[in-house]
Amino acid sequence: MRLKNGNEYIPQQEEKKQSLQYTMIAVICVCLVLIGTVFAIRSYPQWMAKRGNNGIDLTNEQQKQQVVPNQDVVKQVPTVDSRDAGKPSESESNSGKKSAFISPVSGTIVKDFAMDVPIYSKTLDEFTVHAGIDIEAPLDTQVCAAAAGTVTKVYTDDRLGITIQITHEDGLISQYSNLSTNKMIEEGDVVKQGDVISGVGNTALFESLDAPHLHFEIQKNGEAQNPTSYIK
Fold it and tell me: How does pLDDT run across 141-156, given as a tens digit for each residue?
């Protein structure tokens, strides 16, 4: 076949143009799908965090002064080496009484302490004991030291994710798990009550299907205690 100007018509060129157009359209569609997927993933934790719960509300005026909800964890806490730390003052010592702790994060308890009667785990799909309490809060909400003490462990637990342990007086240890970072403090640091030590994360493998929260434990002489008995 020839055109009026005598040039031969080459159908392959038209087919190549159409193929290129289809390829561009396919690439655009894939990009739109990827953008939508990223948006959905980023929005999921915030949607989960807004679900209603009927647990114990640990938000109070004193805690609001200690913790700034939703504020990103952006800088390291100023601390001192434990070798330079003096003895606790009389006001910090409560001999014969349970030490006064504050809630390490402002939020609602969505899973209670349960060592005698197992409770259901959505992630494990079975009933298990629960050695602490889960306090729901948005991702990266600041987590504070519940009481003054010395940081004795900073590690990643196989079940509970990034974990920090602080040793207090009277044989008490507070443990903070499912954290977002372990870069803010080091073992041996001395912290005051209310010092920011990390943020709420999603690192706990055994609680990964739960809404964003802090897993908080208190131990006395190696035995798990109900944290709500110590939080003032």
Answer: 999 999 999 999 999 9
**Other C-beta atoms lying within 10 Å of the C-beta of residue 145:** 29
Which residues does residue 57 pair with via DSSP β-bridges, in sequence order? 108
DSSP 211: P
The amino acid at 215: H
Q: What is the CATH number of the domain that holds 212?
A: 2.70.70.10
Confidence of residue 75 (pLDDT cuts 50, 70, 90): very low
The amino acid sitting at 60 is: N
CA pair distance 170, 5, nearest whole angstrom? 101
Residue 183 is encoded by which pair of tokens? Answer: 């870069």
Are 68 and 13 within one domain? no
pTM reported for the whole predicted model: 0.61
11 and 82 together in one domain: no
137 Cα distance to chain centroid: 8
Burial class (CB in 10 A: 0-12, 13-18, 19+), 15: exposed
Domain count within the chain:
2
Q: For 74, how many CA atoms within 13 A lie in the half-sphere containing its CB?
A: 4
The reply to whether 28 and 67 lie within a common domain is no
Burial class (CB in 10 A: 0-12, 13-18, 19+), 214: buried
